[in-house]
Amino acid sequence: MSNDTKKSPLNTRPLPVAGSEIQGILIDKVLDFAGLFAIFAVTFGLTLTLWQHDIFGTLPNRWFMTLITIGFGVYIWKRFSKLLEDAQTYKLGRQGEITVGHILEVLRPFGYTPIHDVLCKGANKKYFNIDHVLVGPTGVFAVETKTWSKAKNQNERIIYRNGSLYAGANNKGGDALKRAKDGAEYLQNTLCQRLGKPCSVTPILTFPGWWVDENSRISAEGIIIVNPLRIGEALKTRPQDVLSAQEIKQIVDSISYYLYDIADQREKRCCDDLHARCADRR
């Protein structure tokens, strides 16, 4: 489906959050750098040709240089096109997470504490994140946000069927379901270790701007599938007073300390990798 038949599922523009302006500036700088790099590649080729003529009195074979220029130009164009495509995807995903974050913040007066962008370290030592964690009277929830684009002028909805998600007529497979489940399991294991007692975490998979079919609210894996505007409504149907105010504070503090620890570990790993690369060059 071509881009002109797609539209964002978000009807409202999310309010800015801390660091969003800097992140936008950094993205713009990356895009500007990609364009400058393409210009540099051209000027570098011309400069190399001129130096060869001045030093050796010869010029490179024009057909050879033409093929190199065309090949490199095609490569740069593909990389640049992919960069633009990825930038749009990240921008849409970031807007969706900000939108869900604001919705979760509204639940604070009802005893819920949202924690955003929880960094995790997988078994393969690769980092991933849980978009939002919600801690409140009805328990602990790991919220995975999927901001999928929608076809224009079509009333599409999210449907869960036989272990797969369908966005309109498109089968999205089980990747989003697996991501939500894995994030909840990771957080549950982490909290159990840090608290020294069982702590259940329920996964929530939410789709900003999408209508979720009524029969698809709970997946076979126990994942709550819902539009973010109806997360509060979904929580009302859960058993109340599962966690006391003291337990909520204890869990929130544990996650906060965990975030400090995991950030320190990541920073140390980056420094160790940098030192190792520097040592290899000596």
Tell me what you see in this structure.
The chain has 282 residues and is an alpha/beta fold. The protein has two domains: 15-92; 112-267, 3-Layer(aba) Sandwich (Trna Endonuclease, Chain: A, domain 1), CATH 3.40.1350. The chain is 51% helix and 19% strand. The protein is built from five helices and eleven strands; from the N terminus they run E-H-H-E-E-E-E-E-E-E-H-E-E-E-H-H. It has helices spanning 20-56, 62-105, 175-195, 231-236, 245-281, and strands at residues 6-7, 113-121, 127-136, 139-145, 150-151, 157-161, 164-167, 170-173, 201-206, 211-212, 224-226. The protein has a five-stranded mixed sheet, with helices on both faces. A hairpin with a 2-residue loop joins strand 7 and strand 8 (170-173). Helix 1 (20-56) runs antiparallel to helix 2 (62-105). The longest helix is centred in the first third of the chain and has 44 residues, at 62-105. It is elongated, with a radius of gyration of 25 Å. The termini are far apart. 22% of the residues are buried. The model has no long low-confidence stretch (mean pLDDT 81).
